[in-house]
């Protein structure tokens, strides 16, 4: 991952650019072509003279990922700025997105929605949530002498035995049928209204973002990653801050419905040999915010505020303002310090070989590919599972295992903290297998990660509260490892699925993760009135999609059990955005004057009929009456042009 300060590829590219400049300029001048000074200076300074801090390929994408090489201007080091900008925005998005999850019981208490607030034990002693309750730390049940059941459902506590009730030496505590003192401050167990509010808010938080993430495909192509990321952070800051004003359950549900970023940015900046690692590391360390928030919101913010004398109701509200401030700071930094692509401040769809303007029809075209649909649901089975766990685990450990708040959040945080390396490990595994086995290595990495995720999720669903908490933690860590590895292996495949629709594919797959959390919430955890069975059913869902991995097959890449049907040379020559494809089909548009982007226009140039437009962009006209400068046949001879630009056409950005 760590390379030389300026790799040989970067130096070679710079020399090639200089040579091309010296050879192209005389032809331009001799033919009478008029270049606007401003356009020429901007193009020359921003592209030709750039020397990157990272080694790059012919498309100016980094071929290495040196995490600590952050020096240099934005023109010299756009790759690592994009990497860290993406990582920090991911991290803060998750921190703010799940900030209310560890504070759920405090918020429920503030709203007066705990079971023992809505139904005081004095007047409602037979509530099912009370009858089932047992204080694990003291082993004392609410029903001191057992339960009375009807078809397996508790209906009341057993009466006090007569020998104790009539015993004059028995204490008043021993003569109690119900023991409300053993109940937690906020009873919010499965089946209660409180638990339903928290579950609904969690589903709303991930469900609403499905539409946002789908829309991101078009938004990214129109406005670029920098504008989209900074805009979403600013918008999210408003809603995170508004969380401090929650008074009613509907507000809690609505305000948790925010957003999360995407992986399109890193795919623009990093070469295929490291794109899996770059995507996985940026997203993994971003997802780390989902684990950090479990600890940060309680141990760093809430508990110290309460210890200083602040009321709990006020402390959690003040705590919510901190992530909002961090959102605004990060948004400003991304906007001011980062570029969309290695050579341009703003993204243009032509960079990914797309000739049409973004439209909603792009989504229809992409969804016609069954492989994309399988990837969407496989991502729902890994990233969707992580989102579901971020919503469930803290409450599960706090209510089912009845651990103290700080301990419960620490255990739940361990799941998210695995993102520190686990998702990166998935991306690295995908890249390594790709290097030695070919594309089928990426597919096998995906299958194995999902397969073992399902195994350990099922195992976690078998750990009941009669066993020590560390047994659950051990299984949880193994489960978390494979969940996040599967996320990394997924985005090791995504950049190769449909390169011209990369933004749309990335958006749809990302939305699949949120869809998975909604499916888990509504189909597994909400309707099943049991603390463990939902985890087991969820494991079956993951295994089902893992077994559909053989659907991945491309004639140029191969599949799980088959190699590619075409040679590697033909594949490279046909891929949009590669140097070989540019040499064959896209030489002319890389000249720093706007002649258009189609091969037909290039052919007309060769015939001496094209025109040079001095306007900014790619607007052009083939009408001689609209010509502003005629390119002579002498300049446009194919031999002259080919000898000048062959081998370095992609070094001349549009």
TrEMBL record:
It is found in: Membrane. The chain crosses the membrane at residues 82-105, 197-216, 228-246, 282-302, 314-338, 401-422, 443-463, 469-490, 502-527, 533-554. The keyword Chaperone does not apply. It comes from the Eukaryota. This is High affinity nitrate transporter 2.5. Signal peptide: none annotated. Belongs to the major facilitator superfamily. Nitrate/nitrite porter (TC 2.A.1.8) family. Its main location: membrane. Keywords: Membrane, Transmembrane, Transmembrane helix. It is a multi-pass membrane protein. InterPro entries: MFS, MFS_trans_sf, NO3_transporter.
